[in-house]
Amino acid sequence: MKKNKVKIGVLGGTFDPIHNGHLIIAERIREEFKLDKVLFIPSGNPPHKTKQKVTQCNHRLNMVCEALKGNPFFEVSSIEIKRMGYTYTVDTIEELRGFLGDNACIYYLIGADVLFDLLTWKDYESVFKTCEFIATLRPGNETDDFAKQIMYLESTFQAKINKADIPLVEISSTEIRQRVNEGKSIKYLIPESVEKYIKDNKLYVLNERE
Ligand code: ATP
Q: What is the DSSP letter of 45?
């Protein structure tokens, strides 16, 4: 960790929808690593021909904005949404670096699922050179595998990966979508304002994402 530089955490994700797991890990990491700010960056919509079905980016962005209200350390950025087609972290970091300048340290926050996917990222070696990571365990990932993957990425690719020592939070967007679809309660899993947004806009109801 570098001293005397502005420390910016970046939490990129689909946020379909944002949930309390995202908010809890971002807040705990901000505190533990003394970050000046955490930027939430929702991904853009994938181009037409993909099989992946993701809720329209305006809804995902609006839900993130609702969720971040009241935390002065949290900010949303629409840089990935504004870009057309697939968005790659390497381009996002480069763009952020452009307006943050060299006096900022960028810490990319990731859950364990993403840790195991890092080598599929476009130009991952370039990403490893331009930012550090802060990784958290997620339920379903073994502590040993998590530690081994960090050691492997650090020794083989000189990635810098800090481990966040925070409690596991068993919430995922998949679970939220399923629960809404099944008419089950999502209370206490997401902020109330996001719950209202989902209801008002009839998101995640039967076949909505088809
Ligand atoms: P989905 O269930 O649709 O895959 P998700 O809950 O993983 O979604 P994303 O928006 O894909 O949410 O996640 C963005 C980032 O937040 C990723 O790095 C992911 O690992 C991390 N993350 C999400 N939920 C948690 C959680 N409960 N604990 C730790 N990290 C999390």
A: P
In contact, 168 and 20? CB cutoff 8 Å:
no
If you write DSSP's letter for every residue of 90-135 in order, what string do you get?
HHHHHHHHHHH-TTEEEEEEEEHHHHTTGGGSTTHHHHHHH-EEEE
Ligand 1 contact, 16 CB (< 6 A): yes
Residue 130 alpha carbon to ligand 1 centre in Å = 22
CATH for 6-170? 3.40.50.620
Q: What is the pTM of this model?
A: 0.94
Pocket probe for ligand 1: among 15, 22, 24, 39, the residue whose CB has the most ligand atoms within 8 Å is: 22
Q: What is the pLDDT of residues 39-57, one digit of tens each?
A: 999 999 866 556 568 999 9
Q: How far is the CA of 4 from the centre of ligand 1 (A)?
A: 30
Q: Choose among 64, 4, 74, 2: nearest CA to 37.
A: 74
Q: What are the structural domain ranges in the chain?
A: 6-170
Nearest CA to ligand 1 atom 19: 111
